[in-house]
Design goal:
The structure holds two protein chains of two kinds. Chain A has two helices and seven strands; from the N terminus they run E-H-E-E-H-E-E-E-E. Chain A is 7% helix and 22% strand. By secondary structure, chain A is mainly β. In chain A, strand 5 and strand 6 form a beta hairpin. Chain B is an all-alpha fold. Chain B has nine helices and no strands. In chain B, helix 3 packs across helix 9. The chains are: A mainly beta, B mainly alpha. The interface between A and B is large, with 40 and 34 residues.
């Protein structure tokens, strides 16, 4: 039984509805809070769990690989560029991990549409798209024949 | 009208208690508190608990729980408008009964409060409701979740209409009809507490406080906020 929303923590912002790739996070018509309308279709991708600003969504892992009594919680901090995980084993052991999301400021990477449209004559060049700039070098290395 | 105010206050208290018992909210919070205390890595002192409570109230006072500024602003308008409207109504009814001369500031503040609720509420109702903004529902959709906002907007709209008719037009019939509809929607607003989202104004601060306590005593199952910042390259 995959994602579920703690309705006492959810404030009905709609981020999970927006981000769910399976389109199964929707808004409850009585309480106007989010809920998983079709747990069978949940991929457990954790998109909604990570996107929720109130950390109101949790995942119940399938019992064949996630033992009862476990807990896996995630905290995404985009302003610091990190994502942290806290795993509680059913014997009470705790492990925490922190990983980088990115090392460059948000919005600093050029979108494909921000690049100049390439000239068709580039088709005859051995270089791939945006080379050598995208490789952060001045020129592609070449093999030099020994004299 | 003084009796009416007392009855409506009682309706809110009784309705909230009924809601708490019916939904088992008190048991839910109590069970959560027991789990938090059992898993706590350290005990909080009385002073720490009080400071967490003050921080919760301070966050609620600026609607800090909302991450998106349109929802935050509309909520602030509705919240402070409601406080202003409620306080001035109670003052006018209890301190200046019918026939007593009322200082102009009171009805002015009452009108400002009502207008704040109307602006914030209509903005929220037609543009910001999550089922409208994110789930494809029509802006005119009405469901049980809209009991509170619906009755609030209707009550305030008729309150303002009645006020403008009373002060601008000499029509006792229109005055009575509009006042009657205003009182009807106000009564519905306060007696529908067990079915509407009215009681959220008590539950949400309780949840926010409990979350702060869990983070402070180490029983939260969320990871601790990171001390690292990996965005180093510009």
């Amino acid at each position: 039984m995959p994602t579920y929303t703690d309705m006492s923590r959810c404030d009905g912002c709609g981020e999970c509805v927006d981000i769910c790739p399976s389109d199964i996070m929707h808004i409850d018509p009585v309480y106007r809070r989010s809920y998983n309308i079709e747990p069978n279709f949940c991929w457990e991708c954790y998109s909604c769990v990570k996107a929720c600003p109130q950390n109101a969504i949790d995942v119940r892992g399938y019992a064949d690989f996630a033992p009862l009594g476990h807990k896996v919680r995630v905290l995404r901090e985009p302003e610091k560029g990190v994502i942290s995980w806290k795993i509680r084993y059913r014997d009470g052991r705790l492990k925490e991990f922190t990983f980088p999301i990115r090392t460059t400021p948000w919005g600093s990477i050029k979108a494909p549409s921000d690049y100049e449209q390439p000239d068709l004559s580039a088709l005859g060049s051995p270089m791939l798209a945006h080379e050598p700039t995208a490789l952060h070098i001045d020129a592609l290395p070449t093999l030099q024949k020994k004299a | 009208m003084q009796v009416y105010i007392v009855l409506m206050t009682l309706a809110v208290v009784v309705g909230t208690l009924f809601d708490v018992v019916h939904k088992g909210s008190a048991k839910f919070f109590a069970r959560r508190r027991e789990k938090s205390e059992a898993a706590a890595q350290r005990r909080l002192s009385g002073g720490e608990t009080v400071s967490l409570a003050i921080a919760t109230i301070a966050e609620a006072a600026v609607s800090g729980e909302f991450c998106k500024w349109p929802r935050r602003i509309s909520h602030l308008l509705m919240m402070y408008g409601f406080f202003l409207y409620l306080v001035t109504t109670v003052v006018m009814i209890f301190a200046y009964p019918a026939g007593a001369p009322t200082p102009t500031i009171l009805p002015t503040l009452w009108t400002i409060g009502a207008l704040m609720i109307l602006v914030g509420g209509l903005w929220f109702f037609f543009f910001l409701r999550v089922n409208v903004a994110y789930d494809g529902a029509s802006p005119f959709h009405l469901g049980r979740a809209d009991l509170f906002i619906g009755f609030l907007l209707a009550s305030i709209a008729f309150a303002l209409l009645w006020h403008f008719v009373q002060t601008g037009y000499q029509s006792p019939t229109a005055n009575r009809i509009l006042f009657g509809i205003y009182i009807l929607f106000t009564t519905l607003l306060f007696v529908s507490v067990p079915w509407s989202k009215f009681a959220h104004m008590f539950f949400k601060p309780a949840v926010a406080f409990q979350r702060r306590v869990e983070e402070a005593n180490g029983s939260s199952d969320l990871p601790s906020p990171s001390t690292e910042n990996t965005i180093v390259r510009s």
